[in-house]
Amino acid sequence: MTNDEWEQRLVLAATLQDQGRDCPSCTGTGGWPGLGGGRGPWVPCKACDETGLKAGIGTPLDSDVP
Description:
This protein has 66 residues and is mainly alpha-helical. 26% of the residues lie in helices and 6% in strands. The model has no long low-confidence stretch (mean pLDDT 82).
């Protein structure tokens, strides 16, 4: 994961947190950088299946479907 990708995840996480829709395990980021300050592999969040959303809330695109 690049620094830019991580920064984008942090922005999304902040939005989900403000809306009260963030996953409690990853705080809306969808996972976390591996050991070594991000030099390790990306660790996907299993609680939200990398969506960053609370379980049962749906996908980010659900509200966009007419």
